[in-house]
Amino acid sequence: VQLQESGGGSVQSGGSLRLSCVVSGYTFSGSFMSWLRQAPGKELEWVSTISKGGDTTTYADSVKGRFTISRDNAKNMLYLQLNSLKTEDTAMYYCANAGRTLSLTVPALRGRGTQVTVSS
């Protein structure tokens, strides 16, 4: 199983980014998918999860209303649209092929990450 994130970068506060995660090596449509993030000096934080078919999404309170998770099962792609970015959103963002609990506790389910830096 391979997960590769992309789309990170440096933006100013209030800006937007779209993160992507390409998945290979297993049946993508058979798994819940999640995004997590880790800021410097802080613990890994769950951000969002999407169901296998994409019909159900959940978000951490800190990003609700600003971030949108989506998936394209035909392309084996997972996305995270980041809007109204704040400096506290600065972190390494990871995708994971699991729901919230497993994605937080099993490092092997996560990709290598893409860095998002938000400046004021």
Query: What is the molecular shape?
Result: globular
Amount of helix: under 10%
Terminal CA distance: 37 Å
Average pLDDT works out at 96
Strand content: over 45%
The overall strand count is 10
Uncertain regions spanning at least 5 consecutive residues: none
Structural class: mainly beta
C-alpha-based Rg, rounded: 13 Å
Encode the helix/strand succession as letters: EEEEEEEEEHE
What does this 3D model show about the protein?
The chain is mainly β and 120 residues long. It is built from 1 helix and 10 strands, in the order E-E-E-E-E-E-E-E-E-H-E. Strands 2-10-9-4-5-6 form a 6-stranded mixed sheet. A hairpin with a 6-residue loop joins strand 5 and strand 6. It is globular.
Which helices and strands appear, and what pairs or packs with what?
Elements: E1 2-6, E2 9-12, E3 17-24, E4 33-38, E5 45-50, E6 57-59, E7 67-72, E8 77-82, E9 91-96, H1 100-105, E10 114-119
Parallel strand pairs: 2-10
Antiparallel strand pairs: 1-3, 3-8, 4-5, 4-9, 5-6, 7-8, 9-10
